[in-house]
Every structure is written in structure tokens, then in C-alpha cells.
User: Fold this.
Amino acid sequence: MVNIILGLCIVGVIIVRQLTVRPVREDSRPALLLVLAAYGVAAVARTVQGHHVSAAMLSVLVASLIAAAALGGVRALTILVWRDPSGQLMRRGTAITAALWIVSIAVHIGADVWLAKLTNIAGLGASTVAIYIAVTWGAQGMVLRARATSLTPPLLAVPATPSAETGSPRQPVR
Assistant:
């Protein structure tokens, strides 16, 4: 139950933050993701300790994490990314971004239900929530940073001098 509450709180904070205009970190600092993933792995290990883990259970867990990564990548495509006048990369999620977070959580709950049908290990699905969030959030961040860094920086340092061919001032590329 603690894992579920923790997961919902983390996702709530993530959604609220993603719907606000914020700078894009061009340098990845995965410390929080690594902590979430480590906590998730430890939680799963504690939960399955002393139990038989079937191939079917592992398949559902792996499929859930693949879906988490895919949904994270798709969510990243719904986030608006631009450079402000100073050249700083900025981002803001959309209503579709928030909806896809809800879909991501629904997919995880579906995997939890499926796992409950495959095994009698109490709390197995709930124990995977932290690693699921780490994977989906990490994939979103990787795709978002790739999109953001592909934006051409503005040529703010280029003076508006007349072009040799046209005689008109050069305009910064945006």
C-alpha cells in the first residue's frame, strides 16, 4: 500500500510540474531516476523473496516495462519545446501529456491485475510501481532532451549586416 501511495504522489507531482513552463535540462542528471529504480528493484526483490517466479510473471513484468518506456517516448512527443529569446530551451506539457500519464498508470494497473491472476505473491504488482515510474519518466526525458537539443540555437550573436546578395539584413535562424 505504501508503494501505491508513493507512486501516486510522485506521478501527481510529475504531472503538475510537466504542465508548467520550465527550462529543459540539457545535461541529464538521473539521480532521482536511479534512486526510484533502485528502490523499485529492492521492493520487487523483497516481495518475491522465497517465492517461485514463473516465466509468465517475468513476461508480464518485462512487457509492462516495455510499455512504460514506449509511453514515455510518446508522451515526450506531446510536450511543447522551444527556445526563449535568450536561447534557453523551454518546455511545457499539454493536456495530452497529462492524459498519457494517466494511460501509463492505467497500463501499470492492468499489469498488476494480470500479475495477481498469475500468482499468489501478495503485493507483487504494487512493488513494481517505482521501477515502472523510473522507466517511463526516464524514457520521456531521453526523448525530450533529444528533441530539445535538436533545435537550432538562435543566431543572436550575429549582427544584422546586409547580405552580399540581397542587400537586406540577415535574420536570426529560429
Q: What stands out?
A: The chain is about 60% helix and 5% strand. Residues 80 and 92 are 5 Å apart (CA to CA). The chain has one domain: 2-22+30-149. The helical segments are 2-18, 31-48, 55-77, 95-118, 124-127, 129-149.
